[in-house]
Amino acid sequence: MSTNITRNTKSAFIILLVSFSFLTSCAQNSLSTHVYTTDSDSLKAKQSVLTNEDSNANQLAVGAERFSRYLPVLEGKRVSLVVNQSSLVRNDLVRENNLTGHLGPSKANQPYQHLVDALLQRNVDLVSIMSPEHGFRGDKGAGEKVGSDIDAKTGLPIHSLYGSTKKPTKAMLEDTDVIIFDIQDVGVRFYTYLSTLHYVMEAAFAQGIQVVVLDRPNPNGRYVDGPVLKPEFSSFIGMHPIPVLHGMTLGELARMIVGERWLDIGATSYKNAKLTVVPVEDYKRTARYSLPVAPSPNLPNDLSIQLYPTLCFFEGTDVSIGRGTDFPFQLIGHPDVVFGENQIPVKANSAAPHPKHENTLLNAHVFTYADPNISKSYSPKPVIKNYSPSDGLVIGTLIDAFSRFSEYNKMVSASGDPEETFFTRPDFFDKLAGTDALRIQIQAGKTPTEIRQSWQKDLNKFREIRKAYLLYDDTD
Questions:
Q1: Mean pLDDT computed over 41-67
Q2: How far apart are CA 455 and CA 433, in angstroms?
Q3: C-alpha closest to that of 240 among 229, 252, 248, 255
Q4: Closest C-alpha among 442, 412, 407 to residue 426
Q5: Which is it for the CA torsion 459, 463, 464, 469, positive or negative?
Q6: How many CB atoms lie within 10 A of CB 419?
Q7: 77 or 368, which is more confident?
Q8: Where are the beta strands (DSSP E) in 304-461?
Q9: Confidence (pTM)
Q10: Nearest-angstrom CA–CA distance, 166 and 182
Q11: What's the pLDDT tens digit per position in 303-346?
Q12: How would DSSP label each residue in 416-469?
């Protein structure tokens, strides 16, 4: 979704750097710091296990692993799955849960198995797969077209829910009795798997089809923060009147969408709607959860997932957040406006076919330690700071970046050189924010405290509404 602008790095001016103290003074964090490369062979590597010292991943069972809670619902039913590469269950649990059918052999050296394979081994009658943004295998870049296909391993038809068709059609669902939705989310309103869930429920309930959501933890579940979306800014990257960081799981949000009647279906369809949510066992919203697989190509590790709520706003600006580099969603940089002392090359790759500032060098600040093997590929070696994300959104990062562009433009205007535009896609920025207020506040020079204060009334109202739909203890 980013635009390509070819630039030559200017060397005629000495850039006065604004202090970046909020980036360099943070204590060391316990997040995973491995960074996967992003060349054409690396997408498989992104599906490696992500580690985290603080993770509760081994102490809980995701909804998909709680077979006894949902296999009875599937008995004798024709089942469609909305899944991607994150729809995994642990092999030890698959082997131990001999509930239905005969389990085929599983590879002992593989800790995870895809839900499709686990259900086929249990003789569940699967009729189709539906895939969201990034595709069934999770190998498509942001905004890249996802086509329909046949799964080579199972022979099941794969229907794309990203591209021209975002909502399941009647033809897709004509042989379906139950839809299972099992996709890992990251807890941010503009991450599009939530919108896919909305459309799946809308299509299913309109045709009397039951929906089963197999819940997974929210890695950003500790936070409720950011502006609440206004209806006039609704789009596929934000459909609901919830804040940027909602602190809910997709299972909880599914309950909220139905309970608040946000679906475009008739009263009869609502009355007959059948939604089943299988909760995560022993999930604590405040505990860190390290994802077993990258949820999308440009979120390769835990730190990128925590930085995503803040850095994604730069997609509406001329600032790069590392697409097309070895540090997606782990840096901010620009070819001309200086953000740090690292010069990081931007090149198209399978995760970012058309990255912003392609074939340039970014003057970048990298937020996380580099993998030693990656560092050797750069000359000079990147200077990389420790960074521990603040609670919720870090609005100061956006304000600082806007200030850097303003300072740069003051200097170049004196010599008649062209200025740089910060908000290159203001409409898209506003869709991400769910309002135009945030952009206007940044342009007006409001402080982070003033901006954050302007959200509180709507956030408090949202917190009250969400209480009725929570499946796990709240953070309050």
A1: 57
A2: 11
A3: 229
A4: 442
A5: positive
A6: 13
A7: 77
A8: 331-334, 342-345, 361-366
A9: 0.82
A10: 17
A11: 899 999 999 999 999 999 999 999 999 999 999 999 998 999 99
A12: TPPPPPS-SSHHHHHHHHTSSHHHHHHHTT--HHHHHHTTHHHHHHHHHHHGGG
